[in-house]
Amino acid sequence: MNSERPEQRDAPEPADRETPEPPATGTPIGRRLLLGTLGLGALGVVAAPTLQRGLEGFLGSVSGKDPTGLTGLLPNGGGFRYYSVTASVPDRGEHDYRLTVDGLVDHPTTYTLADLRALPQTRLVHDVQCVTGWRVPKTPFEGVRLAALLDAAGVHSSAGAVRFTCFDGAYTESLTLEQARRDDVLVALRMKDKPVTHDHGGPVRLYVAPMYFYKSAKWLSGITVTRDVRPGYWEDRGYDVDAWVGRSNGRDDAPTS
C-alpha cells in the first residue's frame, strides 16, 4: 500500500481563499479528569512490578503444561520466555533432588542440594541471550563452578567433553572439556538473587554465560564426562554445538556483557 497521501482531484475549490477556517477546538480537560489520569499513571508505575511477577508466574505454570511452545510467543516484559520440550516436568526439591557426576572420572559422586550449597559459590552477572532473539540484561546467577565438580571427580586423561542430562527426561546438552572448565560456567542454584525456581529450571540448572541460553540446560540431573562431544537435544535439530553469542546459528548479536 502506498503510504503517500492520495491526490484529491475532485475536491471543490474553497469559496473564499482569503478567509481562513476557524481553528478546530476540542473539549476542555477538567482538573479532576487530569488529576485522575495522572493518578492512574502513578498507580500503573507502582503496580507494574506486581503485575509483571504475576504474568511471569502465569506463563511459567502454563508453559510447563504446553508442549507446543506457544506460551513462548506471549509478551513478557521481564524478558524471559518459558520453554519445555516435554508436556510436563516433575518437581524436585530439598529431599529428592540428586545430581550425579560420573563417566570418565576416578570418583563418581552424587550431590544433594545441601551438598551443593555447602560448596564455594560464585556469582556472575551477565546478559542472558536466547537464540530466538530476546535478551535479559545483567542477570545474576550464583552457584558452583562446573570446573570445581570436575576437579573433585578426577577427570581421566582420555576425556574430552561433558554431557548433561535433565530430570525432564528429554533434554540433553554437551560442552567440550575446555569449555566446561571456563570460570563463567556454573552449576547454578540461584538466579536473580533467589533460588532457581522450577519454571526457570530449578532447583539446579546449568549456566553457560558466553553461549546462547539453550546451552544452559534446565532441571539438571546428570554430568557425565565423555571422550567426545555428543550433540544435545537442539543440536540434533539443527542448532550449533558451539553456541557462542554473536558467532553461531546465523545470528550476529553482540556478545553478552
UniProtKB/TrEMBL annotation:
Cross-referenced SUPFAM superfamilies: Oxidoreductase molybdopterin-binding domain
Record-linked Pfam families: Oxidored_molyb
Basic and acidic residues: compositionally biased ranges: 1-20
InterPro entries from the UniProt entry: OxRdtase_Mopterin-bd_dom (IPR000572), OxRdtase_Mopterin-bd_sf (IPR036374)
Oxidoreductase molybdopterin-binding domain sequence ranges: 88-234
Entries under Gene3D superfamilies matching the protein: Oxidoreductase, molybdopterin-binding domain
Domain of life, source organism: Bacteria
Positions of region (Disordered): 1-30
Protein name stated in the entry: Molybdopterin-dependent oxidoreductase
